[in-house]
Amino acid sequence: xxxxxxxxxxxxxxxxxxxxxxxxxxxxxxxxxxxxxxxxxxxxxxxxxxxxxxxxxxxxxxxxxxxxxxxxxxxxxxxxxxxxxxxxxxxxxxxxxxxxxxxxxxxxxxxxxxxxxxxxxxxxxxxxxxxxxxxxxxxxxxxxxxx
Amino acid sequence: xxxxxxxxxxxxxxxxxxxxxxxxxxxxxxxxxxxxxxxxxxxxxxxxxxxxxxxxxxxxxxxxxxxxxxxxxxxxxxxxxxxxxxxxxxxxxxxxxxxxxxxxxxxxxxxxxxxxxxxxxxxxxxxxxxxxxxxxxxxxxxxxxxx
Amino acid sequence: xxxxxxxxxxxxxxxxxxxxxxxxxxxxxxxxxxxxxxxxxxxxxxxxxxxxxxxxxxxxxxxxxxxxxxxxxxxxxxxxxxxxxxxxxxxxxxxxxxxxxxxxxxxxxxxxxxxxxxxxxxxxxxxxxxxxxxxxxxxxxxxxxxx
Amino acid sequence: xxxxxxxxxxxxxxxxxxxxxxxxxxxxxxxxxxxxxxxxxxxxxxxxxxxxxxxxxxxxxxxxxxxxxxxxxxxxxxxxxxxxxxxxxxxxxxxxxxxxxxxxxxxxxxxxxxxxxxxxxxxxxxxxxxxxxxxxxxxxxxxxxxx
Lengths: 147, 147, 147, 147
What we know:
The structure is a homotetramer. Chain A is of the alpha+beta class.
């Protein structure tokens, strides 16, 4: 599990005064960039140097409790599934001030050649990093299981 | 079904050159605002006047094909489930230039008192509008069924 | 002068409840895209097809009155200066519901080869479109004059 | 001078492949939040607790060199002017990898009662913090002088 603490930004809230639901996917992406930072060149090196990306094919987000400006989230990233060309990451986003789970996301990505926009075999260093943080979910799992 | 056509903005793409995956939730929210426009005062009136909001409790997004700057999406919004205090909207986002489905989202919202941040019974005008566009999905539906 | 009407989006506000100051530059860019829509292929064709961009070298923004969710802005775009490789656009952003000026921006851009990231002579169709909406400001102009 | 280092996020670029010009104002706001962190409750406490905000009345941004995903900016924040109810902050945004100035912004804010949306006398703790980082610009200053 890789942990990232992130304060809520002034512009992250919406007209209802709570963090806008789409922002949690931005937070997840930041957590994924942090997760892949140990790669040579980091996530940016993967994208810009090797031209391999990890576009999403599926996201499930469960929103449990709102979070506001002035608060912060601790994002705990782990891996629940590794396939041949895909993987599913899980992000638990926890409010720092009271330990309450704000949101939990599952994010299935496919290793993709960004020039051809076609899936490619998962690079070995990407697979090794994912494997080091594998934490499969226990059966029985209801609707929403990563595929 | 309510339809909205939306060009991709210059800033919507990411460093991989395709629309960032979180933006599709922003697009879904725009489509929802359009969906609720027939309410007296529109969606803004609901939020700011009546202080009733529709925060998400769950989102499922399936990404099928990338979309780029210079292209546009047609977003078709319908309703797949109406509960006592919740509803699930479905957004099909279709590339205008070739008719290809880019993404499909399911978005479950709960009618919420924004002052108390507590669920409330669904207002009748909201229920009526949702009902006018109800298009339930056929069984058998696999993982990802709205709850 | 080219006019664009734009409702404020749910996510455009900040934790103070008014549109975040950076969003006005996003609005200006949308207005610029609309301004250049008459080009063959539009602004996207310029960027993606001809690989010529218009990056900003200077922006001045004067914020006069806040704008909120539920309101809309009418953005009036004109051109106050055309140089050899640069131009300055002016955006007056006016609240639709009461006609009050919310913000006024001056935006100096340079015609740029996006492959080399080097300035290039202004294409003739770009110059012609700018010239059609030229509305130079009157002397004496105080600090803040476009250069 | 208060310094903040900030990596460019995956979603901060635009369809030209460089950081979108409006993002620099978001970065400036983050730097301002960092600048005011020593206040009791930080910037969030000022906004949410005391209901005093610092909305912009003017921004000047000079863009000198583009910055890309995979790079980072060091933002050096200082104060060039303190008035009775306003102040002007200056942000120098420097690319970490080569020390090149990417952008320089001047940001004039007014201490504002967020309930009344009316200017108020500058709180003493705000004034003291600004004064601790005052670095007035030398005359002669050309167009673009903070007012």
